[in-house]
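Course assignment 3, question 2. Fill in each field.
Student: A.L.
Task: Predict the tertiary structure for the chain below.
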Amino acid sequence: MRRPRCAAARLAVFGVVQGVGFRPFVYRLARRLGLDGWVANAGSGVEIHVEGPPAAVRDAFPAALRSGLPPLAAIERLEVRPAPVANLRGFEIRESRGEGGFVFISPDIATCDDCAREVAAPGERRFRYAFTNCTNCGPRYTIVLGLPYDRPRTTMAGFAMCADCRREYEDPLDRRHHAQPIACPACGPRLVLRDARTGRRMRGGIPEAAALVKAGRILAVKGLGGFHLVCDPGNLRAVRRLRRIKDRRTKPLALMARDLGAVRRFAAPGPAERRLLLSPRRPIVLLRKRADLPLIAPDLGEIGVMLPYTPLHQLLLEDLGLVVATSSNPKDAPIAKDEAEGGGVRRLCDAVLTHDRPIAMRADDSVVKVVSGRPLFVRRARGYVPYPQPVPAALRSDRVLVALGGELKDTVSLYKNGYVVTSQFLGDLDDYRNFGYFRETLAHLLRLFDARPEAVVTDLHPDFRTTRYAASMGIPHFRVQHHFAHVLAPLLEHGHVPARPVLGVSLDGYGYGEDGTAWGGEFLLADYGGYERYARFEPVPLPGGDLAAREPWRMALAYLDRAFGAAAPPALPALEAIGPRRSAAVRAMVRSGLRSPLSSSCGRLFDAAAFLLGVAPFRLEYEAEAAMRLEALADRRFRGVYPVSVAAPSPGRPAEVSFAPLVRALVGDIAAGVPAAAVSAKFHDSLARAIVRVAERARRERGTAEVALAGGVFLNRRLLARTEKLLAAKGFKVFRPVAYSPSDESLSLGQVAWGLARLKSGGT
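Answer field:
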């Protein structure tokens, strides 16, 4: 009797395929199709050998691999090639093969429904166990030490599995097959409650910790990527004390709510916002306030809230319902990942609910809002990092590239094998503690992805720490203008290769310009290979230099001087607070140019308008505070615009957008008693229409019909929504960040694009 025909194939799978239940999925699929062979993790992803009927091997199996994937798995590339028939019998999951390589791992993922039910079910052996997880959920990026992703290369290596966990781990048909963080009360991490003052162990665990919060105490809780400081948002004394401890007078605090019902008490999430809140990523979602919670997000229209994303949070919120959950770090320092770091979290709280599973890589909670139905990231970290970003084929290189970002809101990005991995938010590197976090994260990414960079890209600014650090790396160093990198980021994100330059609208507070001056309101005709500064905001003096970014009254006086010249502007309540002597001194600085460099900054325009309207403090506590207060003031019911002047370009100078007419009209409205909500709305809409006017001129003169929106100013929900809508109505194709933030977090992504273009053009 003749044996049936037999064929064999070797498959290499590249993507998020380790630690996400992919191998058990392959095992079940092969058995269902009657195929023999094996599957194994490899340094480059997952390798599969199958043999059996030719149609199943060549067609059915590869096709089925792409359908019905486990929830966290994602195939980026699948290679199939014929292989010799080895006459194997049965299908098996083999041990991991090889070291290093470049394989994607899943971000940390919130507790899945199956695990949540187990934690809540009295009959389950993981009932009320705070570290319950499976292949579909749990810690990933924050516990991994190396690849391939196996338990010995995670911070779970020190926990020996009990017999029950081992049985689940080794059963290909079990939900926890090769779930590297697998644990149970008998063998896994354990919680301990400590007194913050003495460090001694306290009696009890989660219920006792919750009781402390109810009693008005501040609790530090160790989560996935670091510690939270937790208190009762309804206890104003506790919130005030937390703000004093954190030296955080007005900066908003994040909340964690037990469920959507608790969220609806103070906010009204729409469908897209509900999806984000309930998603496996579980970011902090910025929602429009429905009812005010005192001291949580003062003077702002949005409030940030997340749902529990670990069993520990789930159990803690059972009785509490709603808590403040802010990162447990001193002001401007990175989130703490162990109790002793940075002087110890114990000095920030009354008690610590901690555990003995080490954190390999710290990561803050991600923060996102919804604009026109799509996400807009304020901060990209836990739940999204280190998900890969494919690079357009026209830019791909076989060389390894690293980009170090800027100075504020920094990230680093690594390019290898056609993909970019961008780190979590690292903070402002002018603080030495965050610079240490930057070096820690860069080393972790290079080690994790077995990367040896052959070139490095940084900002053009010569005094940024990242620029100086890159110069010490001993490899080719490319430097790219700040706003150009901003524009390239959304193009790379969307895989767009322009047929002709796009108009990049890059609006932020500050970026070092090619001419050595401060840029910040830029219209660049750009592709990956270079840019032309087509238009800019009219430069205005920054009285006091860097002080002008922290004290918005200075910018108010600078814009008034530009708008009214020697004539006295109308009397405004906000100006009375400055006082005549201070006003005269600053106006003298502006007119003489003494310590008053010129800047085209859009952020400083927002500061000036906010102060003139009386909503900006004399001195800002945090970046964009004045702009956020101004946005909160705008009423969606009001429409209208102020005049803006757009001057034609001249030889050697770009076109200029002057807001002097706007300032005169805005001041007139304030003096006439027009409601502040209407003035703010008109201000935002005027800026959006000015952007469209420049875009229309660029289309007439240069033929570009594509616009990229970038820079931290576009975190403004009203401005972004209005600008997108108006541009689309005029027939423009708009690219704006969706998977990344438009702020300086995206600089490293745009820098990668520029670096790859340089390599393609022969740069070394």
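Instructor remarks: The chain has four domains: 7-105, 191-369, 386-481+746-760, 504-737. The longest strand covers residues 7-18.
Grade: pending
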